[in-house]
Design a protein that fits this description.
This protein is of the alpha+beta class. Helix content is 23%, strand content 44%. It contains two helices and seven strands.
């Protein structure tokens, strides 16, 4: 199963790219989590732990492609993927004063937990949009 979402954010592609990879900046997936270890280089690893629904959810992966302002590809492993390595791709395209961010997550399990990624990634893109306007 796959999830694909797009969201326009009032920022440059480089700003969104940089924010996604920086665990100290609001709006990215690593900000405000229980613990985050992020090495944003090709083949660099990440780990982060999110407290949600009364438990801690560990996420792991590695960065596959890092093309500043254009594309991020990273693997994604968690309990919700049943331990399977999935692939998350973000692309960034300038549209006037906004950036169109397209997020595609493939090889998810076709079950309730796999489908919940759509809501989670939607929330993350909204958080990014809010963070850059603050």
């Amino acid at each position: 199963m796959e999830v694909e979402l797009s969201h326009s954010i009032r920022a440059t592609p480089e700003e969104i790219y940089d924010r996604w990879l920086d665990p100290k900046r609001p709006g990215g997936p690593w900000f405000g989590v229980v613990k985050a270890i992020v090495n944003p280089v090709v083949d660099g690893l990440f780990y982060h732990c999110v407290h949600h629904e009364g438990r801690d959810w560990a996420h792991y992966g590695r960065f596959v492609t890092l093309d500043r302002g254009r594309r991020i590809e990273q693997t994604w492993v968690s309990d919700a993927t049943k331990g399977r390595e999935t692939l998350l791709t973000l692309t960034f395209a300038a549209h006037g004063s906004e950036c169109l961010v397209t997020l595609r997550h493939v090889d998810l399990p076709d079950d309730e937990m796999g489908r919940r990624h759509r809501d989670g990634w939607g929330y993350m893109l909204e958080a990014m949009a809010e963070a850059v306007t603050d």
